[in-house]
Known about the structure:
By secondary structure, the chain is α+β, with helices and mostly antiparallel strands. It has 6 helices and 10 strands, in the order E-E-H-E-E-E-H-H-E-E-H-E-E-E-H-H.
Amino acid sequence: MAASPIRFSIDGIAVEATEGQSVIEACDAAGIYIPRLCYHPDLEPSGTCRVCTCKINGRNGAACVTPASHGMIVENETPQLTDDRRTLIEMLFVEGNHPCPYCVASGDCELQALGYRLGMVAPRLPYQWPKHTIDATHPDIYLDHERCILCARCIVASRMQDGKTIFGFEGRGIAMRLNVDATGGLGATQMAAIDKAARVCPVACIVIKNDSYRVPNGERRFDIAPIGSDIEAKRKQAAS
Ligand code: SF4
Ligand code: SF4
Ligand code: FES
């Protein structure tokens, strides 16, 4: 006998999930966008950024690491949650160096796109102007620590999909930073441009050399439609 579907609601909308799906996976399939930053559909969720935090049965929970369960009541688009997410995004902007107008990722950057989607105008927190380095030791890849938002996607992809351990975090709190497993920089590791870890960075921290302007500014994915539109299009299509 087939298992009966898991049914829950998000912002009053009924959603069906299958056993083992997280809240974010079920909502993605149903065409409901929950803002996220560290979550990537091809990777095991790490739950590091907390941007996807929803009220789940009245308590805060990260939608990417919470399994869908029957009868759950989820709140996603409330003014308070939107403000909390905007604050998280603002903190990432001030804790790194993000000069969007001349960044290679502009228009294709999930951090920038979330700033727009969440209505961020200017950070309310003071800029910290941290001093980070750019690692250009690899022949095909730049590693620009100025932009890293410590989302852990590259760490998960390298370990779980590439079978390597190129990346890790060192330090804690505000001093935490991404590290590579060689003293000679990225160029001294086994990293290859075709690795999954080289393709999942949401910002311009891991950048493939000579590939940055393949799609010109103005024609990039978030120049064309806001982040989350692809997911929301599924629901609009189903309703038409
Ligand atoms: S990585 Fe994104 S947020 Fe940072 S400067 Fe580039 S476009 Fe802006
Ligand atoms: S390099 Fe990119 S993918 Fe890796 S932790 Fe930093 S922002 Fe995330
Ligand atoms: S997207 Fe869920 S914690 Fe980052």
